[in-house]
Design a protein that fits this description.
The chain starts with 10 loop residues before the first helix and ends with a helix. The chain has a nine-stranded mixed sheet with strand order 17-18-16-19-15-14-20-13-21. It folds into four domains: 161 residues, no CATH class; 255 residues, no CATH class; 277 residues, no CATH class; 157 residues, no CATH class. By secondary structure, it is of the alpha+beta class. Helix 9 packs antiparallel against helix 11, helix 11 packs parallel to helix 14 and helix 11 runs parallel beside helix 25. The chain contains 29 helices and 21 strands.
Length: 909
């Protein structure tokens, strides 16, 4: 009879079945961390691509397009030139030119244009065309491709060629004009315009069209084809007579007729870049492609193909340079946030491995005592964690790829792989370090009695040197000085140093506190300090996580606060209040202030009369003078922080006929001093002023030279308000503009502030900082919970034993809370101090102007890093609340269970 052979269950399956909760928690942590790590480079790629596309789309099509032009073949026979201008030839060259453009620069064929146009304006002698100063209108003739696809027919029909092929001797062609050209120059379907050249060419207008995409390359590169313009005669004289300049759109087949005119026809190809194919990572290659076409191998190829005199013009190289500068200024700040969040996440993963190794210390020690090799134990633990971590990491990567499509896979794969590797190696390496020597009972590792080894001292000194070097490098070169990855790690290294120093100082402090606590009447305080002093030295990891998270939160929150403050300040400087209503000409209507005061969101309104053309005594220099109500205007200046002053400083004494006090800019004060001087207002009246207050800025005026006086001292005409400064939250721009009407312009601080964020790179960097701060805070909380969870079984057993000796539930809660405070309070205090110190140390090398005010390069508002109180206080309070809450919750939960059950659980552990 054969007996069935029973095969022992494999190690991995047994361990996973023995602790399914721990395996599931590890899988969840790895999946979440891998997802965040993989999402970071993909989000940066998307922001960079969107920023580059926005940079190209925002500039004029004349700058963003590749403009290639070539003559029809100077010196060649007329028949050959006619063939070169025919649509088949021009379209064939278009395909060849597109093939010349080097990858990764791609051409958007739907937005590109090509054709033939005259390079010299042709005089149209028709008497019925408008002649503002007696000069005849001049016309630009163009034969663009696919007019029907780029315009809608409004009246008449599209031009065409009938009869035989058009040549240089053709005397009549058809054309179309745009709606604006027809309206301005009084052209309609059926009009005939004769342009002069070697032979007179009659252009028969057959239709009026409307552009489908007025801002596209087809119509915007040469705006005269869409909109006529009033041009002054050559010579530079501002009083020179003017004439109208318009465009006539011929069919492509009629292009050879331009050879019979004095228009010097030229073939053109305007290539619009495909913005969807622009990627920030390809910026260097894109710049190389443009350079090749402008003055490189691409230029030589085009000239050999088209004409020796072919030219290429574009502004893409300037667009790419501006974008690269913006990206270079923002990238180091993003790297700082990423390094902080990733450090905290790595600490949590290491703590997870350490917690698992501590929980299985007895098991692994027994295996080593029974002859298990260190390599064998480490390999089994690696396989055990890999079975859980690898699928979880792959799942996190897949989620990141699905949520953030359209970005590179390799960086995301590397980030998720690094997270998975750390998760897999944390437990095996920690176990190998703890059990490299076979022992059954380990020595005590009390924090108050442990002595750091020499290796640890060397490692700490090395970290200190790195941190000091990074901080000094950042202070000297700044975030834009190409300082390398060490600079982006400077805030993290500051947190690491603080953690190491705090761990060094913690034991002596506990020993000194334990002595006076022993003389207290109650035993809870002394017992709590004694328990805190016996905490394992592995508490350095949660302390490192907390301090790094504190530094990251303080740094990131301060960056966001600095950016927000700079934008608020710049917007206030540009508007002067929450809203500004200014007359376009003359004073505002008399009833407008009352109507605006009742508008939604308006809380206060300040009337100002501004005379921009007030003259000084010599009458040769204009000086803006603002007439205000001193009380209301002083309150506005105080609210906005723009040149605060006391109302009495601008007010005459009661009944006095003294000179009128004035608030002046430093430039005006230096010029006139404190002596009285006359000023002639715009209405012709004179007022004598004396400068009594000097301020750099004022809400009503944004210039370096200004005067502010009391309106009561001006004439009734000069005191009529021309500007209304509004104060209020949630101002409705549409309602204000409807109330103000066409005679006044409305500017809101909120709209001005939004204008400063004109690139996805800026908004993306802010979102990355917000996400980094949130992720760092979440992982820090998890690290704190892991450290508390590690000691939870021992604490529960301790409470059970003490309850058998008469400890009350209230005393048990106080014991656990007081035991946790000696670790939480130094962490909080050290975190706040570290965050503040990191900002103070690093702020001289960090300039936030680019990320805050990229839309206004001329802004004089500095955007510097400064400590944000909320970013320091909120994490500190959160850590204390979480620590006390967990300790109190554990004491409450232990009190619900019986003492016998807790003691058995503790013995089992």
């Amino acid at each position: 009879m054969n007996r069935a052979i029973r095969v022992p269950a494999p190690w991995i399956r047994t361990r996973l079945r023995a602790a399914p909760g721990a395996a599931g928690a590890l899988a969840l942590l790895v999946a979440l961390t891998a997802c965040l790590a993989a999402a970071f480079p993909r989000a940066l790629d998307r922001y960079a691509d969107a920023g580059l596309s926005r940079a190209v789309e925002q500039v004029h099509p004349g700058q963003s397009s590749l403009q290639i032009s070539a003559d029809p073949g100077l010196g060649r026979k007329t028949a050959d030139q006619e063939d070169a201008l025919r649509p088949e030839s021009v379209a064939g060259y278009y395909k060849s030119i597109v093939d010349t453009v080097e990858s990764p620069l791609a051409v958007d064929g739907s937005r590109s244009a090509y054709g033939v146009r005259s390079t010299s304006d042709l005089i149209a002698a028709e008497e019925w065309l408008p002649r503002p100063d007696g000069l005849p209108a001049q016309m630009v003739l163009a034969a663009p491709n696919d007019l029907a696809g780029h315009a809608r027919l409004r009246s008449g029909r599209l031009p065409r060629v009938t009869g035989g092929p058009v040549t240089a001797s053709t005397g009549r062609v058809e054309a179309a004009v745009t709606e604006e050209t027809a309206r301005t120059l009084r052209i309609e379907a059926g009009s005939v315009i004769r342009v002069h050249g070697r032979d007179e060419l009659a252009v028969h207008v057959t239709g009026v069209v409307a552009p489908r995409d007025p801002d596209g390359v087809y119509w915007s590169v040469w705006s005269v084809l869409q909109t006529p313009s009033l041009v002054s005669a050559p010579g530079g004289d501002p009083n020179a007579p003017r004439f109208w300049r318009g465009g006539l759109l011929l069919p492509p087949e009629a292009a050879p007729a331009l050879l019979g005119t004095d228009g010097s026809p030229m073939r053109y190809w305007h290539l619009a870049p495909d913005t969807d194919a622009l990627h920030g990572r390809d910026l260097d290659r894109l710049s190389a492609s443009v350079a090749s076409l402008e003055s490189g191998p691409g230029t030589e190829q085009l000239r050999s193909m088209l004409s020796p005199f072919a030219e290429v013009e574009t502004g893409l190289d300037a667009v790419f340079t501006t974008y690269d500068r913006l990206r270079g200024d923002i990238a180091p700040l993003v790297a700082v946030a990423a390094s902080g969040a990733s450090t905290v996440a790595a600490v949590v993963l290491l703590m997870t491995g350490g917690l698992a190794a501590g929980r299985r210390r007895a098991e692994l020690a027994l295996l080593r005592a029974r002859g298990a090799s260190l390599r064998g134990v480490t390999g089994r633990l690696l396989a055990e964690t890999a079975v859980v971590a690898l699928p979880a990491g792959a799942l996190g990567l897949a989620v990141a790829v699905l949520v953030l499509p359209g970005a590179r896979l390799l960086p995301a794969l590397g980030a998720a792989g690094a997270v998975t590797a750390v998760a897999c190696l944390a437990l095996p390496l920690r176990a190998a370090a703890a059990h490299r020597v076979v022992r059954v009972h380990g020595g005590r590792q009390d924090l108050a009695t442990a002595r750091p080894s020499r290796r640890r001292t060397v490692a700490e000194l090395t970290a200190v040197a790195l941190a000091l070097g990074a901080v000094e490098l950042l202070r000297r070169r700044g975030t834009t000085g190409g300082s390398g990855d060490l600079v982006s790690l400077a805030p993290v290294l500051v947190g690491v140093i603080a953690a190491l120093v705090l761990v060094r100082l913690h034991p002596p402090a506990l020993r000194r506190l334990a002595r006076p606590a022993g003389r207290l009447r109650g035993a809870v305080g002394h017992l709590a300090l004694a328990r805190a002093g016996r905490t394992s030295v592995s508490a350095v990891l949660p302390l490192l996580a907390l301090l790094t998270a504190f530094t990251t939160a303080a740094f990131g929150g301060s960056v966001l606060a600095g950016v927000s403050d700079a934008r608020d300040r710049a917007a206030v400087l540009a508007v002067g209040a929450d809203g500004r209503v200014e007359a376009t000409a003359g004073p505002l209507p008399s009833g407008l202030p009352g109507r605006l005061a009742d508008a939604p969101g308006v809380r206060d309104l300040t009337e100002v009369s501004i005379a921009y053309q007030a003259k000084t005594s010599d009458g040769r220099q204009s000086l803006p003078v603002a007439g205000v109500d001193p009380d209301a205007y002083a309150a506005l200046a105080a609210r906005t922080g723009l040149g605060e002053f006391a109302p009495g400083e601008l007010t005459r004494r009661d009944g006095s006929k003294d000179v009128l006090p004035a608030l002046a800019s430093p430039m005006v004060a230096e010029r006139f001093g404190t002596a009285p001087f006359p000023v002639r207002m715009e209405d012709g009246t004179f007022v004598t002023l004396r400068i009594t207050v000097v301020r750099d800025r004022t809400p009503a005026l944004f210039r370096d030279d200004f005067l502010v006086v009391d309106r009561a001292g001006l004439s009734a005409r000069a005191a009529r308000p021309t500007v209304l400064l509004l104060t209020g939250d949630g101002l409705d721009a549409d309602a204000l503009r409807a109330t103000a009407g066409d005679g006044a312009s409305v500017h809101l601080r909120s709209e001005e502030r939004a204008r400063y964020v004109d690139s996805p790179l800026q908004s993306g960097a802010e979102r990355v900082y917000t996400a980094a701060v949130a992720a760092g805070a979440g992982y820090a909380a998890l690290a704190l919970l892991l450290s508390l969870a590690r000691a939870a079984p021992e604490r529960a057993a301790l409470l059970a034993r003490l309850r058998t000796m008469g400890l009350t539930p209230a005393q048990g809660r106080r014991l656990l809370v007081l035991e946790s405070l000696p670790q939480a309070v130094p962490a909080v205090a050290g975190g706040v101090l570290t965050g503040w110190a990191a900002i103070r140390l690093l702020s001289p090398g960090i300039d936030l102007t680019t990320i805050a005010l990229a839309a206004s390069s001329s802004s004089t508002v500095p955007a510097r890093l400064r400590a944000d109180p909320w970013s320091l206080a909120v994490p500190a309070v959160a850590v204390l609340v979480l620590t006390v809450g967990v300790a109190a919750g554990q004491a409450w939960w232990s009190g619900r269970r019986g003492a016998v059950a807790e003691l058995r659980a503790g013995d089992a552990r």
